[in-house]
Design a protein that fits this description.
single chain; Alpha-Beta Plaits; Chitinase A, domain 3; Trigger factor, domain 2; four-stranded antiparallel β-sheet; 14 helices; 44% helix; 21% strand; extended
Amino acid sequence: MNYTQATGEKSTVKLTITFSEEEWQNAIGKAYLKTRGKYTVPGFRKGKAPKPVLENYYGKGVFFEEALNALYSEHYYTILEKEKDNFTAVGEPELGVESMEEGKGVVLTAVVPVKPDIKIEKYTGLKIRKFEYNVTDEDVDKEAKKLVASEAKPVEVEDRACKLGDIVNIDFSGSVDGEKFAGGSAEDYDLELGSGSFIPGFEDAIVGMNKGESRDINVTFPEDYQADNLRGKAAVFAVKLNKITERQYPELTDEYVKAHAGAETVEAYKAKLRDRLQKSAESRGRDETEGSILAAISKYTTAEIPDAMIESEIDRIVQDFSYRLMYQGLKMEDYLKYTGVKMEEFREQYKTEAHRRVLCQLIVDKIVREQNFTADPAEVDAKIEEQAKSVDKTAEEYKKTMDPRQLEYISNDIIITKLFNYLQENNEMYIGGDKPADGE
């Protein structure tokens, strides 16, 4: 067996694999031994007819398909391993037979979708927005209320308009350009105002409504909304408010937090909450800043991304969505039936998001390689020791409980941290929206 490779269109590599007549006949012989049991010929017991008899009775090519599959399975992945430094397959190949002549062997082809080598015009010297979030006393108080939430009593409100924090029961029907869209209508829907469950502007527009009141709410779907067909579209929601409910909480006292939160005083409990919320805020700011950086660099990036990579990413998105539904006690097929959306349509609406995710990962991989960011053993050990302390173990004890995937995750985390530190240091980062950003 020998093979050649050639670069194809849209990030593909064409492998041309040539097998000698001897190799081809050997594959046919193996196919005969493997499949002869399913063929019947008059005068022979099932599975006992000689190969020439079966070929004469069923046709010369009776074992060709099995033989071709065997050659592919035996050699294709070996070739990928040999060529791993030259290209990386990202999906199943498109297989073909280039030639098959008696006495001359067989020539197979495999058009392989491969990881593209993207081109980044620049990734330094850009103006990029940085996100930072601070924790307020109001945030701490709101979080502290969760401790007594299980004992909060719902009380229906009759004498005032609704406000943030209330739970409103509403009927709503959304439309774009006068046409209703899938998943845009519901009745007797309970919504906590300020929860961020709906698109920006929707919940704020309900604030101030009274029980029994109806209102048309005008909103615009975000440009990054999950459904492609609704991105950036102006929509009108006809809303009727059926009921307003507020939660009345018991008083948060030193005795209560001592019994339920292990803190000596309310002040000490809130201090712990503030610390936890601040860490969460810093994580959120970091994630959004990294997204802002990649969005800016994307504008200077060109890539021919094979469909296989997009489809694989959509697979992951659909799987994650299915898991979230399961936590709510709902199956994916039931959700699709309820919303009236077919799986093909559901997948299609995530194509843009999948493309964005794949492109961002390719950008990360490219810059990591160009800047040669690595995780030194000493850095990995330091991270392991840090994690071990958090669970009151020594580094050696902690290592015994780790599997290779954890070590790989730690190494990747160190590398990604280096990457984004480098990108922040080598770009003009600013807070707020007063400057034109490359990523916006």
